[in-house]
Amino acid sequence: MGQFSAVFEEVNEAYTTQTCSSCGEISDNSPKGRAGLRIREWICSDCGSVNDRDLNAARNILVLGHERLAEEIPVL
User: pLDDT digits over 2-38, tens only?
Assistant: First the structure.
């Protein structure tokens, strides 16, 4: 069996709960600040997507990680 090694890169998670993972916009309806911590689900006012706060942030962080990996792939 081959050996598996993982590489972890930090990404800036700022605004990942506020940015809609479907359209990329920061909606008027998204959770903001300390008051927004109790908002668990919100509907994007731009595209109508229903977003769970934690799943939305996780999707945005995943996209940021993929973008970061793609930047480091050399062009042949």
Answer: 676 666 778 888 999 999 999 999 988 898 888 888 9
Q: Which residue has the tokens 């934690």?
A: 54
pTM passes above 0.85: no
Per-residue tokens: 46: 């731009």
Q: Considering only 28-32, 33-37, 62-66, 70-74, which range has the smallest mean pLDDT?
A: 70-74
Identify whether the C-beta of residue 48 lies closer than 8 Å to the C-beta of residue 28: no
Q: Is the dihedral of CA 46, 51, 56, 57 positive or negative?
A: positive
Instruction: Quote the Cα angle for 8-10-13, to 5°.
Output: 135
SS3 1: coil
Extract the tokens encoding 25.
């916009």
Give the contacts of 64 (CB within 8 A, at least 6 positions apart).
11, 12, 13, 16
